[in-house]
Specification:
Shape: globular
Distance between the termini: 38 Å
Radius of gyration: 16 Å
CATH superfamily: Winged helix-like DNA-binding domain superfamily/Winged helix DNA-binding domain
CATH topology: Arc Repressor Mutant, subunit A
Structural class: alpha+beta
Number of domains: 1
Strand order of the largest sheet: 1-3-2
Length: 138
């Protein structure tokens, strides 16, 4: 638990028992997860507490929220030293239309997009939809 506490503290997040548990859950996952996924795993926990935990992680830039086209927000941990900055930290997301998993592909960064004068980008999200590597081998 000590390493988990350090991760939270490095992101200015007070290490509570639930935050430590949710952080471990996110670390164990290789895919982006929804609030429902977290709620199903922690079936004895309050949905509001779990939601607030995820929101705290997003606000502290420990995790990021992904809109993958399903209408259900997904969450994944950020890379180390990520600040969710549009020009530096944004990466590709891939949603498999076969297994419905969404994954971060952090090695592929979203290129800087020039907007017309007067437009200000607040968020950028690039989702590629198709068949993932696990499903394409079946």
């Amino acid at each position: 638990m000590q390493d988990l506490e350090k991760i939270l503290e490095n992101n200015n997040v007070k290490p509570t028992a639930m935050r430590l548990l949710v952080l471990q859950f996110l670390l164990d996952k290789k895919v982006a997860i929804s609030l429902t996924d977290v709620e199903n795993y922690f079936d004895k926990s309050d949905r509001t507490t779990l939601y607030r935990t995820l929101q705290t992680f997003v606000k502290s830039e420990l995790a990021h929220k992904i809109e993958d086209g399903t209408g259900i927000p997904k969450y994944a941990l950020c890379e180390e030293n990520c600040h969710c900055e549009i020009d530096n930290d944004l990466h590709l997301h891939f949603r498999c239309t076969n297994c419905n998993e969404t994954v971060c592909i952090t090695d592929y960064k979203i290129p800087t997009i020039s907007l017309p004068k007067g437009y200000i980008a607040e968020d950028v999200n690039l989702v590629v939809k198709g068949i993932c590597d696990k499903c394409s081998h079946n």
